[in-house]
Specification:
The complex is a heterodimer of chains A (136) and B (111).
Chain A lengths: L4 E6 L5 H14 L4 H21 L7 E8 L3 E8 L26 H9 L2 E7 L2 E9 L1
Antiparallel strand pairs in A: 1-2, 2-3, 3-5, 4-5
Helix pairs in contact in A: 1-2, 2-3
Chain B lengths: L1 E7 L2 E10 L1 H16 L4 E12 L1 H16 L3 E5 L3 H9 L8 E2 L2 H6 L3
Parallel strand pairs in B: 2-3, 3-4, 4-5
Antiparallel strand pairs in B: 1-2
Helix pairs in contact in B: 1-2
Classes of the chains: A alpha+beta (136), B alpha/beta (111).
Chain lengths: 136, 111
């Protein structure tokens, strides 16, 4: 199945479940297994959560998610017109300190990098364009 | 997400059902903070019916653990599904929390 699938949603946290359902259905159509679907759902959810919480999207601006099955890999392109933010340059999270010293942030990007095989960011034509690739 | 809570001796047990994403994490954080504000120091979170967790869910668990540790309390977790467990593992969170297979074991560990 090479169908291109696309979703546009408003930048509200309550839409995260719509995004997750879209990924589950789309990746199911591409024939992926439950574990890979979970990993892609998590990566996309984290990317979209960052947009919703930090990009200061205007109400009329949506988040766009496009999926393509490219035979040996899945490509997901997430676009928004919020503030420029390159998640590929964030510092790695603290994974070792005890509970009181442990910092609360940074895990979302860690999940994206852990579960996806390629992560590319561009700011293009006024848009953040995040491309996530998973080899299958 | 559905969140139910009940008391067992002086511990509170929170049973979660559904997806723990940034949206539902905000709701969960409010409930846990209310319990801690009321003086609760022992909390068990039952993850048996949690099918999904993102970093926002982990953030709430860690923030609650930090708050409780400061007052000599603890938040313990039970019945994590494999994918949820994997998210805890790759975050280095498995070492931060006491995690039990069964809710009952988590509750009894307070005694």
């Amino acid at each position: 199945m090479k169908e291109h699938l696309e979703l546009e949603v408003g930048g509200e946290l309550e839409n995260l479940s719509i995004i997750s359902d879209f990924i589950e259905k789309s990746m199911g159509k591409y024939g992926l297994g439950d574990r890979e679907i979970f990993q892609i759902q998590l990566a996309v959810d984290e990317a979209c959560t960052n947009i919703i919480e930090h990009a200061e999207l205007k109400e009329e601006n949506k988040i766009s998610i496009k999926c393509r099955n490219l035979e040996d890999k899945i490509e997901l392109v997430i676009e928004d017109r919020g503030k420029p933010f390159d998640p590929t340059t964030t510092k790695p999270p603290d994974l070792k300190s005890g509970p009181q010293e442990r910092e609360l942030g940074g895990l979302g990007v860690h999940f994206i990098k852990t579960f996806m095989d390629e992560v590319k960011y561009e700011f293009r034509e006024g848009k953040n364009v995040l491309t996530l690739i998973k080899y299958i | 997400m559905e969140i139910e809570w009940k008391k067992a001796d002086d511990a509170y047990i929170l049973s979660l059902k559904g997806r723990l994403d940034a949206y539902s994490s905000n709701e969960l954080e409010k409930i846990i903070n209310k319990l801690i504000d009321k003086g609760t120091t022992k909390i068990v979170v039952n993850f048996e019916e949690v099918v999904y967790i993102s970093s926002s869910g982990l953030r709430v668990m860690l923030a609650s653990l930090k708050r409780l540790k400061r007052v000599g309390g603890e938040i313990k977790l039970a019945a994590l599904k494999p994918y949820v467990q994997e998210v805890f593992d790759i975050s280095g969170f498995t070492q931060l929390f006491e995690i039990y297979d069964e809710e009952e074991d988590a509750v009894n560990s307070f005694n």
